[in-house]
Design a protein that fits this description.
By secondary structure, the protein is of the alpha+beta class. Helix content is about 40%, strand content about 15%.
Length: about 55
């Protein structure tokens, strides 16, 4: 599974990549990482924790 930085994810989703928006995306991704949905593969890079996660 590929890992993405918040700025890359903004580009993929065609979202505004201004710093304030990137920070909002980063915050949401970190929250998902805290819940075990995402994992931080290296500082600032996040990926799905496992392909079998269903909530």
């Amino acid at each position: 599974m590929a890992a993405f930085a918040p700025g890359q994810l903004c580009q993929i989703l065609d979202a505004d990549a201004e710093p304030k928006h990137r920070e909002g995306v980063r915050s949401r991704l970190e929250r998902l990482a805290g819940r075990g949905i995402l994992t931080e593969t290296e500082p600032g890079m996040l990926a799905l924790a496992s392909a079998g996660w269903h909530g």
